[in-house]
Amino acid sequence: MIPQTTELTHPQADGLRGLDAPEAAALVCAGQPCPAPLRAAAARAEILLVQVTPTDRVEPTDQLDGHGAVTISHTGPSPFYASDIDLVLRSNGVRTLYVCGDPVAGMRLAYDAQRKGYRAVLVRAGNAPADVLGLRMPQISQAELTGQLAGTAPGARNWHEAVKAERMARPFAARLEPTRTALLMIDVLNDFCAEDGVIAKTKAAMPRVTEALPRIRTLLEGARAAGAHVLHVQAIYGPMFRGQGSPYRYPSTQTREGAVWCASAADITGAAPAFDPTMVEVCREGTWGADFVEGMGPVDGETVIRKHRYSAYLDTALDAELRRRGIETVVLAGVTTNCCVESTARDLAMSDYDTVIAEDCVAVKDLVLPLHDASIEQIRTYFGIVTPSDRILDAWH
Q: N or C end of the chain: smaller count of CB under 10 Å?
């Protein structure tokens, strides 16, 4: 996650124009050492300095070079995706990167950073705009950036320990500020929740799912009224996306419900079993079962996230959409607690989003009720706040 920054007003040194939002800026040098004048100006302005260097090691390394400076190694052609730079940047509240150094490495890093939701500005050596292979990329000259850094007074920065500590200890109501909060509706779909859905047709009792639906609806209406952004997760499974980790039901004598729900968990001996695909896979593309429960689907301005595994975070646009909107906190509601809700909560928390579970708005079928209880305790202990939906609504209003 890229935390929303607080706008700060700093006195400008020597009448020069300073950087916009310096508290959330970083100078990133890719492939080559940072020019000395630029490095010195960044240090005086207390701008986080990140040096990214290639390495032949299998595992990239990070090295703290001093106050506000870090060296990160990368192991592949992309200095962004083959390093820990995203982890370092989001951990330190960076939103804008000024990228200098080797032109090719810098362009790759800036392009990938933009795709991840950062604002990336290429720093060119001369005054003439650099050719970036036809990509529309903001640019600034080294001389102009050095001048802006000289005009930026030192002050509180998101990478400062005191600032980070204050943000990490925000009270519950502050975390739920609607403009920086999203409600994530997980798999509120017919196959999982409706009487005629695939799960109900297996004769599994699911009163807790049915009872949760009105509370989920109330939470949805409250999020809309408060102005929090709503994202609807839609599971889409079937042959195109079928793999070891996709939901696909295999019989088992080792589980409470007599089945496992992906090939990775299937301990098969003898001939592989054959099933009717309409019964072993839920939420097939284009079916009624994959549609949202009536009255619980998206309205204009809301986002649909299609997923093909349990987690709504993996292989989806969720992270990019949350970053684009400046979202810091994600409230989760939907089904099932022990599977898609917990999988998503884990990924969000480990990506530095404040994660909140509306406890009375998540549910499972009765057969696996102990797994619901275990998931709630697991999330509450390690990954996020678990609290009744009324408390969330009170914070929003």
A: C
Q: How far apart are the first and last CA of the chain?
A: 25
Q: Which of 83, 91, 66, 67 is nearest to 30 (CA)?
A: 83
- What is the pLDDT at residue 196? 77
Q: Do residues 125 and 251 both lie within one domain?
A: no
User: How far, in whole angstroms, is CA 63 from its chain's centroid?
Assistant: 25
Q: Is residue 351 part of a domain?
A: yes
Summarize pLDDT for 343-386 with one digit per residue, the tens.
999 999 999 999 999 999 999 988 889 999 999 999 999 999 99
Please check whether residues 23 and 89 belong to one and the same domain: yes
pLDDT at res. 11: 33
Q: List the domain range (segments joined by +) for residue 39.
A: 13-168
pTM tops 0.90, yes or no? no
Q: Total structural domains in the chain?
A: 3
What residue ranges of the chain have pLDDT lower than 70? 1-16, 58-66, 127-135, 200-201, 203, 270-281
Residue 31 lies in a domain: yes
In a domain, 312, yes or no: yes
Same structural domain, 144 and 57: yes
Would you state the structure tokens that stand for residue 286, as one six-digit string?
């284009």
H-only helix segments in the chain = 36-44, 85-91, 103-115, 142-150, 161-168, 172-175, 190-193, 198-201, 207-226, 277-280, 318-324, 342-350, 369-382, 389-396
The residues facing 54 across adjacent strands are 74
Q: Give the domain CATH number at 158.
A: 3.40.50.850
246-273 residue pLDDT tens? 887 777 888 887 888 888 888 877 666 6
Q: Answer yes or no: do 45 and 188 share one domain.
A: no
Q: State the DSSP H helix or E strand holding residue 135, giving kind and residue range, or none if neither.
A: none
Nearest-angstrom CA–CA distance, 23 and 7: 8
Rounded distance between C-alpha atoms, residue 219 and residue 213, angstroms: 10
Among 227, 253, 281, where does a domain finish? Answer: 281
